[in-house]
C-alpha cells in the first residue's frame, strides 16, 4: 500500500510502493525473439534511502572549512568579513524573503503538530526505523536523459496535418514500431501488464493502460485533439529559480507562459486541478491570483508535502532560513460556465489543509504520486492527466519533454517470472 497510515491531518506515504504497482507482470519483446520474456521488477529502493537530514552534511562541511580557514590569520580575517556580510543579509530581508517568512509563520505549527502523530504511527508499524539499511549492492545508475534535447530537435520538423492524423498510437504484440513518431502522437499501452519497449535505442517500462505524449509546450495539439476531458489534472511546472539556473539541470519556464497550457480545454466539469509550487511566495501568489482565475479554476485548498528521512526527521530544519522541509500544493476545481456541475455523491468535499509526509527521492524533482490520496475527491473511474511529468502511472495520461525519464529500465531491479497461464489477458497480449 502506498498509504502507510492516515489521520485527520493527512497521510504518511510510501512512494516506492505506488511506483511498483503494475510491475508484478512485465513483458518484453525488445530482443527481437518471437517468444516474449516475462519478468517482474521494482523501483530501486536506494533512491529512497535518505537516513540523515541533509543539513548535517552541510554542517560538517562548514566545520571543516571553518577549521581550515582559521589555520592562518589572513583566512580568519576573511571568514570574519564573510560572517558579517551574512548577518547583514539576514537582517535585511527582501520582499520575497519577507513574504516567505510570513507564510512559514502561518503554517509552522500545522507542519510540526500535524506530522507528529503520523510519524509516530510510522515508527510503530516499522516503516520509519532507527536501524540504518545496508548499502546497496550495486551503484545507482547515472543515466543521461536526452529526451528534452530530442524534443527541441523535433520542433524543427514540419507539423503533421491535424485533420488527417489519429492522435493515439497503440502498442501491439511486438511493442512499438521503431519508426513511429513519438513527438506527434499519444503513445498508449492498452494492456493489463507492463511492457518493456525500446525507444530511441533506450529501454523503458510502460505501465498498464498508461498513455504519454513526449513534447514541449509548443506541440500539445495531439493531447487536445484526442477529445479526452480529464477529472484530475496535476501539474509540476519547472519554476524559475536561482538554484536551477546555477545547476543547469533542466530548463525552467517563465510563470507567464504557463497560461498557454490548454487546461480549460482538457478539464471536465468540476475537474480537480493540483499544482506543485516552490516555496517562493511570488509563485504561490501567481497561481492563486493569476493562473487559476485565468483558467476558471476556483482555489479551494493548500496542502503541504513534508519531506522526512527514513528515521522520521525533517530533511531540513523546520525553521531553516534557506531550504524548508516542505513544498506546497494548490488545489482547485475548474468551473465551466456560470453553473456548477452536480457533484457525484461519491466525491468527498475537499479539505482545506492536509499534510503528505514521505521520504523524498534523491532523484531531482521526483514527486510522490497523488493518485491514492486524491481518490476520494474525484469521480469513480476518473480520467487523470499529469502535465510536466517525468514518469508514467497506471491508468494515467502524462505529458512533458521528459515524460518517460524515470521509466528508463536502469531505475528498476528485475527478476525472472514464470510465463503466465493461458488466460483471457494472455490472449489479448499475444
Short structural description:
The chain has 430 residues and is α/β, with parallel strands linked by helices.
What does this molecule look like?
- This protein has 11 helices and 17 strands.
- It has a domain at 147-415: 3-Layer(aba) Sandwich (Rossmann fold), CATH 3.40.50.
- By secondary structure, the chain is of the alpha/beta class.
- Residues 57-76 and 423-430 have low confidence and may be disordered.
- The longest helix has 30 residues, at 95-124.
- The two termini are 30 Å apart.
- It has helices spanning 15-20, 54-69, 73-91, 95-124, 147-154, 221-225, 242-247, 263-266, 281-294, 371-374, 424-429; strands at 3-7, 10-13, 26-28, 37-43, 168-170, 186-188, 194-199, 202-206, 211-214, 230-235, 267-277, 297-307, 326-334, 355-358, 384-387, 396-400, 412-416.
- The strands form 2 sheets. A 12-stranded mixed β-sheet has the order 1-2-14-12-13-11-10-15-16-9-6-5. Strands 8-7-3-4-17 form a 5-stranded mixed β-sheet.
- Belongs to the MT-A70-like family.
- One of its GO terms (molecular function) is nucleic acid binding.
- Residues 68-91 are annotated as: Disordered.
- One of its GO terms (cellular component) is cytosol.
- Pfam families: MT-A70 (PF05063).
How many individual helices?
Answer: 11
* Low-pLDDT sequence parts: 57-76, 423-430
User: What is the string of helix and strand elements?
Assistant: EEHEEHHHHEEEEEHEHHEHEEEHEEEH
Rg is: 23 Å
Kindly report the name of the CATH homologous superfamily of the domain at 147-415. Vaccinia Virus protein VP39
| Average pLDDT score | 82
Largest sheet: 12 strands, mixed
CATH architecture designation of the domain at 147-415: 3-Layer(aba) Sandwich
Structural shape: globular
Percent of residues in β-strands: 15-25%
Please state how the strands of the largest beta sheet are arranged side by side: 1-2-14-12-13-11-10-15-16-9-6-5
Q: Look at the structure and give the CATH class of the domain at 147-415.
A: Alpha Beta
Number of strands: 17
From the 3D structure, determine the CATH topology of the domain at 147-415: Rossmann fold
Cα-to-Cα separation, first versus last residue: 30 Å
Judged by helices, strands and strand pairing, the structural class is alpha/beta
| Fraction of residues in H or I helices | 25-40%
Protein name: Methyltransferase like 4
Family: Belongs to the MT-A70-like family.
Organism: Cyprinus carpio
GO cellular component, one term: cytosol
Amino acid at each position: 500500500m502506498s498509504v502507510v497510515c492516515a489521520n485527520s491531518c493527512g497521510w504518511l506515504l510510501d512512494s516506492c510502493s505506488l511506483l511498483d504497482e503494475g510491475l508484478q507482470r512485465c513483458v518484453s519483446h525488445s530482443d527481437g525473439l518471437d517468444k516474449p520474456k516475462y519478468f517482474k521488477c521494482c523501483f530501486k529502493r536506494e533512491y529512497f534511502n535518505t537516513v540523515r537530514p541533509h543539513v548535517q552534511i552541510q554542517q560538517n562541511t562548514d566545520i571543516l572549512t571553518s577549521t581550515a580557514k582559521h589555520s592562518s590569520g589572513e583566512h580568519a580575517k576573511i571568514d570574519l568579513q564573510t560572517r558579517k556580510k551574512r548577518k547583514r543579509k539576514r537582517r535585511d530581508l527582501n520582499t520575497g524573503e519577507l513574504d516567505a517568512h510570513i507564510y512559514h509563520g502561518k503554517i509552522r505549527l500545522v507542519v510540526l503538530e500535524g506530522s507528529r502523530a503520523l510519524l509516530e504511527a510510522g515508527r510503530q508499524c516499522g516503516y520509519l526505523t532507527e536501524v540504518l539499511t545496508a548499502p546497496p549492492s550495486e551503484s545507482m545508475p547515472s543515466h543521461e536523459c536526452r529526451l528534452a534535447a530530442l524534443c527541441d530537435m523535433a520542433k524543427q520538423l514540419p507539423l503533421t496535418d491535424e485533420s488527417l492524423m489519429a492522435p493515439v498510437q497503440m502498442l501491439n504484440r511486438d511493442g512499438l514500431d521503431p519508426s513511429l513518431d513519438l513527438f506527434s502522437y499519444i503513445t498508449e499501452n492498452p494492456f493489463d501488464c507492463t511492457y518493456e519497449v525500446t525507444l530511441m535505442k533506450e529501454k523503458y517500462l510502460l505501465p498498464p493502460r498508461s498513455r504519454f505524449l513526449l513534447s514541449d509546450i509548443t506541440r500539445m495539439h495531439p493531447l487536445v485533439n484526442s477529445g479526452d476531458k480529464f477529472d484530475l489534472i496535476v501539474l509540476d511546472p519547472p519554476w524559475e529559480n536561482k538554484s536551477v539556473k546555477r545547476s543547469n539541470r533542466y530548463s525552467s519556464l517563465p510563470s507567464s507562459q504557463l497560461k498557454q497550457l490548454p487546461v480549460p480545454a482538457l478539464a471536465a466539469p468540476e475537474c480537480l486541478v493540483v499544482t506543485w509550487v516552490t516555496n517562493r511566495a511570488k509563485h504561490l501568489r501567481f497561481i492563486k491570483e493569476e493562473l487559476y482565475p485565468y483558467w476558471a479554476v476556483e482555489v479551494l485548498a493548500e496542502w503541504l508535502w513534508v519531506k522526512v528521512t527514513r528515521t522520521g526527521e525533517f530533511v531540513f530544519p523546520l525553521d531553516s532560513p534557506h531550504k524548508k522541509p516542505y513544498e506546497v500544493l494548490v488545489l482547485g476545481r475548474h468551473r465551466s460556465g456560470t453553473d456548477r456541475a452536480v457533484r457525484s455523491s461519491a466525491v468527498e468535499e475537499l479539505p482545506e489543509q492536509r499534510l503528505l509526509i514521505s521520504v523524498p527521492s534523491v532523484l531531482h524533482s521526483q514527486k510522490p504520486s497523488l493518485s491514492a490520496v486524491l481518490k476520494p475527491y474525484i469521480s469513480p473511474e476518473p480520467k487523470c492527466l499529469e502535465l510536466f511529468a517525468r514518469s508514467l502511472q497506471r491508468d494515467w495520461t502524462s505529458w512533458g519533454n521528459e515524460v518517460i525519464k524515470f521509466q528508463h529500465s536502469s531505475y528498476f531491479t528485475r527478476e525472472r517470472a514464470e510465463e503466465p497461464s493461458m488466460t483471457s489477458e494472455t490472449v489479448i497480449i499475444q
